[in-house]
Design a protein that fits this description.
By secondary structure, the chain is an alpha/beta fold. The protein contains eleven helices and nine strands. Strands 1, 2, 3, 4, 5, 6, 7, 8 and 9 form a nine-stranded mixed β-sheet that branches. Helix 5 packs antiparallel against helix 7, helix 9 packs parallel to helix 11 and helix 10 packs antiparallel against helix 11.
């Protein structure tokens, strides 16, 4: 029985998955299995996976389900280990990832996560280079009011804990937030979380075009069943985070009027990080407004009728 089962869901990422798999094969810790669960790819993903002649790799193709939750659940079900590691097909690990996580495992730990380096163009909003932070003692509350700090490709979790919470929710209402919903369910049990303050891999933005979707309704769906534990102050911070997500989407898609409305609401009640991010975008919106006004004034001044 391998010590770790590494579940890699994939869909039409033949150009990415080779690097993800190779990053696992490069690990210093070698007692693992890799379960590549293909969610109906129509590209050459199968051929790419089959190029790796390693008996630890298992590949399975299924009809497309519309998201990574179902292939992850299939991988969990087929796994042969006590510990499940998640790795998205467009992310990579550093060679010491599994060894570091293995060394951190203790009998009272159920869930391990660490920092990931962020790669990709995040536009004018890029402020940090990593994702991950130490969650406060009440992890459920922290995840609700301070946003999801846990990147899926950093997670190492006991299989029995995933089974206890029923795996990942496969509803389309939780598009790209099924992982967040799962962390909330585990925090509610409560499971014992352990944070490793090290960058042990890289997370790539943009592949799934998440920035082209307004994620606020999906985040609300993922967290709705848990918000009854929040007091009035915490609820305001939770709603301010939702406002920020909506405002950020509007901002990235150049809908500055609606972005301003949501970002102002987020700034009023948000946690420090939300306030900083919101004011950053609001400042840019106001600068753009001034620029467009001055451009119009200069254009009118230089018009033929004024010369």
């Amino acid at each position: 029985m391998p010590f770790f089962s590494i579940v890699i869901p994939t869909y039409n990422l033949a150009d990415k998955i080779s690097e993800a798999i190779q990053s696992v094969l490069n690990q210093n810790f070698t007692d693992y299995e890799i379960l590549v669960i293909d969610d109906g790819s129509t590209d050459s993903t199968k051929d790419v996976v089959n190029q790796f002649h390693d008996e630890r790799i298992y590949y399975e193709w299924n009809v497309n389900s519309g998201g990574p939750a179902k292939p992850r659940n299939i991988g969990i079900e087929k796994s042969n280990s006590e510990w499940i590691c998640f790795l998205d097909a467009d992310d990579i690990w550093y060679s010491d990832k599994l060894q570091v996580c293995y060394s951190a495992i203790k009998s009272n730990i159920d869930f391990i996560y660490h920092n990931l380096k962020i790669n990709g163009n995040n536009g004018f909003l890029t402020r940090t280079k990593t994702r991950g932070r130490l969650l406060k003692n009440n992890i459920l509350i922290d995840l609700l009011v301070n946003s999801n700090a846990i990147a899926t490709s950093s997670v190492v979790v006991r299989k029995k804990i995933l089974q206890q919470v029923g795996g990942m929710n496969e509803s389309v209402e939780l598009f790209a937030t099924e992982d967040y919903n799962t962390w909330l369910k585990i925090a509610k049990i409560p499971g014992n979380f352990f944070y490793i303050p090290m960058v042990l891999g890289e997370y790539f933005l943009g592949t799934n075009n998440i920035s082209n979707k307004n994620m606020s309704p999906f985040i609300k769906s993922a967290s709705q069943e848990f918000i009854g534990c929040l007091n009035s102050c915490q609820m305001k911070r939770y709603l301010s985070w939702i406002d920020y997500i909506r405002g950020r989407y509007m901002y990235l898609n150049n809908n500055y009027f609606e972005a301003k409305t949501s970002l102002i609401m987020a700034f009023k009640e948000g946690a420090t990080e939300v306030k900083i991010k919101s004011i950053f975008m609001l400042f840019h919106i106001y600068l753009l407004k001034i620029y467009l006004y001055l451009k119009r004034v200069v254009s009118n001044y230089l018009s033929p009728q004024n010369l």
